[in-house]
Design goal:
This protein is mostly beta strands. It has a single domain, classed as Porin. It is built from one helix and 15 strands. A twelve-stranded antiparallel β-barrel has the order 1-2-3-5-7-8-9-10-11-12-14-15. Strand 8 and strand 9 form a beta hairpin. The chain is globular and about 45 Å long.
Length: 247
Amino acid sequence: MVPFTPFRVTLFLLLASPAAAQELENIADNSFLIEEAYNQEAGVVQHISNFVRDEAGDSWVYVFTQEWPLGGMRHQLSYTVPLVSPEGFGTGLGDILLNYRYQAVGDGEGALYVAPRLSLSLPTGSEENGRGSGSVGIQGNLPVSYEVNNALVVHSNTGFVLDGESGALDARLGASGIVRVRPCFNVLLETVWGSDEDVVLLNPGVRWAIDAGSLQIVPGLAYTIALTSAASDAFFLYLSLEHPFSR
């Protein structure tokens, strides 16, 4: 078994938080490590790409997530496919996630949103080469989003990752604050903690929106700071494409 390297810790924290989406007046659906509590609106699909490369440039991971509403905002299905390149082990597929989210609180009008998620992790990545867990797993997360005022939105995540083979249960906690400098330009500060290896990450970044007709493009970038020795600093790039698939 490959040891749980700092790069693998960062990878599994990233995969523990598939993005969420909803088209609001402001950018409100494009966090990086934190999951926002907004499901997709009816008839709108989102394609999300994350790319993380450690500071030394020897390891990287690309994660693609696609989100679809089931009829409306209440129910949402998505899948997450990672491409992983740990140092010295080559590039290959990681563990794929199949995700379901339920919009328990929030309808596009109020300040509070809650959308619990349950995910099935498939062992499609090689454990031997550091690209997967080696077993089926279950993930759960409870994202809560609250709009304090027009300029500030805060988010919290409480989650777990359950290994189906060993029964090991790891906890995930996260929080973020997003300052709307302009409706189309936001400054983010995220922090994430994972119980495995006691990893703590701080993720300051920016995101902005470009509207091209019915297509909304949201690029973003951040620098991930490891506050414990269990993880490594990394460069973080983000891109979201969101558009209607029905009228």
